[in-house]
Amino acid sequence: MVLLPRCVFNRFLQQFNSGNQEKATKSLLSAGFPSALLAGHRSKATAVPDVRERTLIAVKPDGVQRRLVGQIIQRFERRGFKLVGLKMLQVSDTLLSQHYTELRTKPFYPRLLQYMTSGPVVVMVWEGHKVVQASRTMVGHTNPVEAQAGTVRGDFSFHVSRNVVHASDSLEGAQREIQLWFQKKELLNWECCDQTFTCEV
Ligand code: DAT
Ligand code: MG
Fold first, then answer.
1. Which of 40, 46, 92, 132 would give a disulfide with 55, using CB separation of 3.0 to 4.6 Å?
2. CA–CA gap between residue 109 and residue 93 (Å, rounded)
3. In this predicted model, what pLDDT tens digit does every residue of 14-23 receive, in sequence order?
4. 3-state SS of the chain: helix, strand, coil percent to 5?
């Protein structure tokens, strides 16, 4: 844990909120804040986008049954993200309960478990700059009634119990889920030929 004097923190907030991110960063560093913890918050001028961020996307049994796999993959490809893992499987109760561990006490959990294990799912790992956040936006609100048109859920579903697709909701969640669903050797590190045309690296 890093303890900062309140005045240093307030100065940082003031500078950061007024758009002077470089100065804000410098004031933190000069107060002894570890530079490694600032890696994700560099100023625009020096930032190198992290193009290696990964997330887990799964086409749920309803999406597979409705032959939506191709259209969902196409959306991620078209956006410019890189596919680094892909497989089709019938999910076991054990895997599903580990995946949805936070939902085990919810009243809808037994029905969710039954539906998610009712048929094959197609699970993927996509890579790219801010892919976790971007893919949540692309997938849309959990409840399709609230999902914007143009999102996967907003375009292909109307009920929360059959919302077509899963997307990790945070970096930590993505790392946990990727390890749960994929072995290391199932994920490929490969160079996209268009890499320098989708992002400044
Ligand atoms: P998300 O899939 O958007 O991350 P979540 O993690 O809260 O949403 O829930 C996981 C899934 O559980 C969700 O995609 C669909 C199902 N679910 C959530 N709330 C539900 C509800 N009220 N009734 C039925 N199913 C629900
Ligand atoms: Mg979730």
1. 132
2. 12
3. 665 554 555 6
4. 50, 15, 35
> What six digits make up the tokens of 126?
């996509």
- Is the beta carbon of 15 within 6 A of some atom in ligand 1? no
Q: To which residue do tokens 């999910």 refer?
A: 91
- Which of 104, 112, 152 is the best mutation target for the ligand 1 pocket, counting ligand atoms within 8 Å of the beta carbon and taking the most? 112
Q: Is the CB of 168 under 6 A from ligand 1?
A: no
pLDDT digits (tens, 9 = 90+) for 104-159: 999 999 999 999 999 999 999 999 999 999 999 999 999 999 999 999 999 999 99
Q: Which ligand ends up closest to the CA of 143?
A: 1
pTM of the full structure: 0.80
Q: What domains appear along the chain, each with residue ranges and CATH number?
A: 6-45 (no CATH), 53-186 (3.30.70.141)
